[in-house]
Amino acid sequence: MHLPPPPAVTYLQAATAGIRRQTQHTANGTGVPGRVEVDVLHAHLVALHGLADQLVRRAADADAPATASDLSAARTRIWQATAHLHDAYHHAPHPGGQQPRIDESCPPNAEPPRELPLLTTCQRHLATSTLVRRQTTPADLHSPLHGHTRHAPADRGPS
């Protein structure tokens, strides 16, 4: 007998369904993705990074080193993807189709543009990068994905 998922898992399942729907909608699109699309995807990955971070802490607190290690590696890869989205944001056309300047970078104290009332990509990215620098080494952040870390069977726990 399966128990119903806890409410938080239901929200995560709904978010996943929303991404699947957006993927179907975007499949027929043309042209360069705009900044709004990239910003929304960046916000999603930052939230996913936060969720992975909480799961890493729970696994570590529960003395499950293999689970914590795997989740930590996933959290690092999510951050790497987030960093690429941040770069893509700077290369995407501005709303209205204006091309970005070649020298464009994150302004240190940028005001959010009116079309994005929440945190801008740069503000969100800088805030999260502070946390990432505390929990991840530069070598981990810059290493390519080259396979999975394997743990001893005794560390794995029940499957």
Structure description:
- By secondary structure, the chain is mainly alpha-helical.
- It has six helices and no strands.
- Helix 2 packs parallel to helix 4.
- The longest helix is centred in the N-terminal third of the chain and has 27 residues, at 35-61.
- It is globular, with a radius of gyration of 18 Å.
- Mean pLDDT is 79; it is low at 151-159.
Largest β sheet strand count, sense and barrel closure: none
Instruction: Work out the radius of gyration.
Output: 18 Å
The number of E-state strands comes to 0
Distance between the termini: 18 Å
Mean residue pLDDT = 79
Coarse shape: globular
How large a portion of the residues is in β-strands, by DSSP E?
A: under 5%
H/E series: HHHHHH
Number of helices: 6
Q: Tell me the structural class.
A: mainly alpha
Report the helical percentage.
Answer: 55-70%
